[in-house]
Specification:
By secondary structure, the protein is of the alpha/beta class. It has eleven helices and five strands; from the N terminus they run E-H-E-H-H-H-E-H-E-H-H-E-H-H-H-H.
Length: about 260
């Protein structure tokens, strides 16, 4: 029996890459580069639904159609899983947090791991990567992802949906990774804390299609897989945002920060 698909979700810059490389270090699980296919399949699905009456003579039920659409996505994942000689795949594309309901239609038995991080650190990370102009977009993305997270927590059972706090993960990695692996019904091994000693595929360079050399990259796009888990990115907004920026993020994010228990 094929094991449940895994989807790592979360607002961009929340630590989804860290969780991805941890799971990719598991003996049974592989997690490849971001596929960015779900959004495209959702767009295609919306067009098909608008045209469904014209397709009814073809005698394909919506259930069969959705299963086939899911097979399009899983065919890439299964091919990758086979190439890595593993048994189970995990997909990590942060924006998928906005398409969970559609993913659930395609994979009604899948498991979701939602990474939640202090929104002020998310904003800080956006700013460091894309400049000050990205701050507004970062705040909107984080608030939206958190509001959706509240809905998902109510909608899905505990055996299908798990929330992981980034701060807890980096400060107590063994405890938190054991929770994740227990949720996935897999065996925990110390190798999961040594992801930096293993090779992971990244396709950040669109022109060459090659992995970035994280040891030499000056401005990494994600958590660097070449480094052990570190704690310095937790709370960095207090050091790296100026007084004006702190006032803005605390004002716009305060309601969801409060609900999540952040000071």
């Amino acid at each position: 029996m094929q094991k449940q698909p895994i989807f790592i979700i979360g607002c961009p810059r929340s630590g989804t890459t860290l969780v991805r490389v941890i799971l990719d270090s598991h003996q049974n699980i592989c997690s490849g580069p971001e596929a960015h296919l779900i959004e495209k399949l959702k767009s295609f699905n919306e067009k098909v639904n608008k045209n469904w009456k014209n397709l009814e003579p073809y005698k394909l039920t919506k259930e069969e159609y959705l299963k086939n659409l899911g097979n399009v996505f899983s065919s890439f994942q299964e091919s990758y899983t086979k190439s890595k000689d593993k048994k189970r795949w995990a997909e990590k594309t942060p924006d998928n947090i906005f398409y969970v309901d559609f993913i659930n239609q395609l994979f009604p038995d899948c498991q979701f791991i939602n990474i939640i991080r202090d929104g002020r650190d998310v904003v800080c990370s956006f700013k460091e990567r894309w400049g000050r102009k990205s701050i507004l977009n970062a705040m909107k993305n984080w608030n939206k992802s958190i509001e959706l997270s509240f809905e998902y927590k109510k909608k899905f059972s505990k055996d299908r949906y798990l929330e992981v706090r980034y701060e807890k993960l980096v400060n107590s990695p063994e405890i938190e990774t054991k929770k994740i692996i227990d949720f996935l019904k897999e065996d925990w091994t110390p190798d999961l804390l040594k992801h930096h000693n293993k090779k992971h595929d990244f396709s950040f360079n669109v022109k060459t299609g090659k992995n970035v050399d994280f040891k030499t990259e000056k401005k990494p796009l994600r958590h660097s897989p070449s480094k052990p888990i570190f704690q310095t990115s937790a709370g960095k907004w207090e050091r790296n945002l100026n007084v004006f920026e702190k006032a803005i993020v605390n004002f716009y994010l305060k309601e969801n920060l409060r609900k999540l228990g952040y000071k």
